[in-house]
């Protein structure tokens, strides 16, 4: 299991750990954007979750590492 990104919301991390099965067990998907589920659309809700440090992937969390990146995420979240 990989380590979580340092800025992830601790409550969200606990939720992910409950949802994700131990290594080797499959069949329980965790969607990047629970609002859109399996449709994989990046709606404003996805960016709102990233701004709350609730991104599933490390790159989601890294999306808001700089002031410019954060500003852009805010624009997409609107």
UniProtKB/TrEMBL annotation:
Entry keyword set: Calcium, Oxidoreductase, Peroxidase
GO molecular function: peroxidase activity
UniProt-listed Gene3D superfamilies: Peroxidase, domain 2 (1.10.420.10)
UniProt key word Oxidoreductase: yes
The keyword Repeat is annotated on this UniProt entry: no
Plant heme peroxidase family profile domain span: 1-78
Entry similarity comment: Belongs to the peroxidase family.
The protein, known as: Peroxidase 61
């Amino acid at each position: 299991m990989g380590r979580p990104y340092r800025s992830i919301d601790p409550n969200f991390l606990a939720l992910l750990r409950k949802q994700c099965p131990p290594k080797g067990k499959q069949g329980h998907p965790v969607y990047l954007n629970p609002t859109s589920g399996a449709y994989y659309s990046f709606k404003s809700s996805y960016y709102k979750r990233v701004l709350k440090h609730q991104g599933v992937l490390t790159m989601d969390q890294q999306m808001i590492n700089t002031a410019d990146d954060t500003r852009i995420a805010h624009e997409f979240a609107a």
